Fold this protein.
Amino acid sequence: MTLGKEMHFFIHLFFQGKPNWQGNMKLIDLGFDHWFEAHAAESRKSGQDIARVTAVDRGAYLVRNECREITAELAGKFRFRTESSADLPCVGDWVTVQYHNSGTSAIIHGILPRKTFLRRKCAGEDVDFQMIAANIDTAFIVLSCHFDFNLRRLDRYLVMATEGRVEPMVLLTKTDLISPDELELVLEAIRRSGIAARVLSLSNMTGVGFDEFRRELAPGRTYCLLGSSGVGKTTLVNRLIGHDAFDTKAVSETGEGTHTTARRQLIVLEQGAMLIDTPGMRELSLLDASDGVDQTFEDISDLSPNCRYTDCSHTQEPGCAVLAAIANGELNEERHRSYVKLKKETEYHDLSYFEKRRKDKAFGRFVKSAKKQMDQKR
């Protein structure tokens, strides 16, 4: 197996003087709770062990077991039967493995069911899922309250977390770049929008709010940092680790960093919590997330049963309880527009996705039929 330069750097980084990473840990310390234990029997075959994926780099994997972190690759049979890239292991997954070379490398044979997940539509025209991470307890949605603050983008992250059954929490960074009064306006905008997720504000430069954030990180729990490039995710990780393990480029004139994390990776912090840093997302489109939209915009969903029509789109129908709530000032109009946009987007992508799957299955049946006919003629 050939490893990329980034993967070699990753291995070098975390095997340098980090006893909590190298030392023996029980699987439960890595998040393997009773839920995964109950599902392991269904997935694991004789001679296989359980490990957790900590990094992925162009088809090469790092997995962590009770003793150490080692390189791994997919079994040929597993790779062959995989229909979608979303079915391949991603950071945070629990996988079944067999060890080789005296336990210094592994072959991945399967994935345990995902308890929670973070995924989005692939960037560009391809209508398929891209996995961000799996088996996350809490997703910290990181927004800069100076330059990057955008309520409508926040809605998208909240839908993604809710759809994957991940608890969301909002982190407002770079509070040192605005006044206390301006920060209060940002917090008030979130409250007025109807967003119910918890919000923490902090500054990586002054340290204000950092201790409160660190107290949120519990041993054995897995957390993920989500957000655009330059909002301070990597600086936050470096502060948690205690040194600049990850390089960040110079800050721009606006106060935003220009570094982009190159890969998703899971690290074990000193207090026993696990943290996944993710690359900044320039595009965050939704796919198969209608339930997540409804749950995220629960205030709108609660009004829907009072509409005159059961299939009300909440856009122009007479007797719409949602439009009435906007007219009465009970519902934020911008929030309603965000709901309608996200609902239409995910429904449009869903139709494209299911049509693509239908064609893929039809093509698969054609290939099997053609192969069978060729075998009969021989």
